[in-house]
């Protein structure tokens, strides 16, 4: 049994901590929101009064927080208090630069560290079927893998410090762009009098095939499990897609990569959010595209 501290018990962190406890680990959680602590208590996760209390005696510390500034603030607070030789894993989606800084901080204070952002959403967090994209040394990854396996089904070592975050934002930039492309194709098809099913039947077996079309089709009908069949309830909220696209654009700017479609996708999702749809599934962008067309 491993003593695990889990900091950030929100929509993702709560069920992830519960899965660690269900797998027989000794889990102590902490969240600034009392309601998040209360929600996991009934499911075998002990809770602490502070992040510092939570990490006392822990072999492994997991953080699952909103953004880079929260991760750096929590790691700065707890690292002086962690056991010698402890492993710290950040599963949040954050900017690559903050992630690299967090690794450096851990190294300075003698802790092994891994960045391990996830894909799979709240459903994957509950079902312990997340995909983890990990960055860090071989030794740190080898130590983290058995812990991540209790919360996910696919664990990929992507490279050194920050490589997990880099993989996550590159993947989600593809996703944001491809969802807009598929939405544009259905919008054009509607104007041309082509049925949704006909476009789906052709494109899903032709060169237009992609995940946004075949698994997450943004119109109701062709893929009955996609959010389009459920009033565009998330799923993966447009606000989170915008967050990831913005992270990709920050990274593109600082690294000097040209990502013109990524940049345009970020602008479109920003406009979609400003129109009040941040809580809508990201595939709902098709409705925004329709509104932009000539009546
Ligand atoms: P959330 O807002 O539900 O949870 C974040 C939690 O962190 C909150 O409960 C908040 O109170 C807590 N917190 C903030 N600062 C803290 C601090 N200093 N100390 C302790 N707790 C603190 O967010 P979420 O949906 O669980 O997402 C967490 C991370 O996972 C984000 O980085 C997000 O981008 C990423 N992510 C989310 C999804 C998703 O579908 N929700 C999917 C993939 C990745």
What distinguishing features does this structure have?
3-stranded mixed beta sheet, Rossmann fold, N-(1-d-carboxylethyl)-l-norvaline Dehydrogenase, domain 2, 2 domains, binds nicotinamide-adenine-dinucleotide, alpha/beta, 51% helix
Structure write-up:
The protein has 295 residues and is an alpha/beta fold. The protein folds into two domains: 3-160, NAD(P)-binding Rossmann-like Domain (Rossmann fold), CATH 3.40.50; 166-294, N-(1-d-carboxylethyl)-l-norvaline Dehydrogenase, domain 2 (Orthogonal Bundle). 51% of the residues lie in helices and 14% in strands. The chain has 13 helices and nine strands. The protein has helices at residues 13-22, 34-41, 51-55, 68-78, 96-108, 121-127, 138-148, 163-191, 196-203, 211-214, 238-255, 260-277, 285-292, and strands spanning 3-7, 26-30, 46-47, 60-63, 87-90, 112-115, 118-119, 130-135, 152-159. The strands form two sheets. It has a six-stranded parallel sheet, with helices on both faces. A three-stranded mixed sheet has the order 7-8-9. α1 (13-22) links the parallel β1 (3-7) and β2 (26-30). The relative contact order is 0.09. The model has no long low-confidence stretch (mean pLDDT 97). Bound molecules: nicotinamide-adenine-dinucleotide (NAD). Nicotinamide-adenine-dinucleotide is lined by residues 7-13, 30-33, 36, 51, 64-66, 70, 73-74, 92-93, 118, 121-122, 236, 240, 243.
């Amino acid at each position: 049994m491993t003593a695990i501290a889990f900091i950030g018990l929100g929509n993702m962190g709560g069920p992830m901590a519960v899965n660690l406890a269900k797998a027989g680990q000794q889990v102590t959680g902490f969240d600034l929101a009392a309601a998040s602590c209360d929600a996991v208590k009934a499911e075998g996760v002990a809770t602490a009064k502070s992040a510092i209390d939570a990490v006392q005696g822990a072999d492994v510390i997991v953080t699952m927080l909103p953004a880079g500034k929260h991760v750096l603030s929590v790691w700065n607070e707890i690292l002086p208090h962690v056991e010698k030789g402890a492993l710290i894993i950040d599963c949040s989606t954050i900017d690559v630069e903050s992630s690299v800084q967090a690794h450096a901080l851990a190294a300075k204070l003698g802790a092994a560290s891994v960045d391990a952002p996830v894909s799979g959403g709240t459903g994957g967090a509950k079902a312990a079927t997340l995909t983890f994209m990990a960055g860090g040394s071989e030794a740190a990854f080898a130590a983290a893998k058995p812990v991540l396996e209790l919360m996910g089904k696919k664990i990929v070592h992507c490279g050194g410090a920050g490589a997990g975050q880099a993989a996550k934002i590159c993947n989600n930039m593809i996703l944001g762009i491809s969802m807009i492309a598929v939405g544009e194709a259905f919008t054009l098809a509607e104007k041309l009098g082509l049925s949704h099913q006909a476009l789906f039947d052709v494109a899903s077996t032709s060169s237009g095939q992609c995940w946004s079309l075949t698994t997450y089709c943004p119109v109701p009908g062709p893929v009955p499990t996609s959010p389009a069949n459920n009033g565009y309830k998330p799923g993966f909220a447009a606000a989170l897609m915008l967050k990831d696209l913005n992270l990709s654009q920050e990274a593109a700017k600082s690294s000097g990569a040209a990502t013109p479609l990524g940049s345009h996708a970020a602008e479109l999702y920003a406009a979609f959010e400003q129109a009040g749809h941040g809580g809508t599934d990201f595939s709902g962008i098709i409705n925004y595209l329709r509104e932009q067309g000539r009546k």
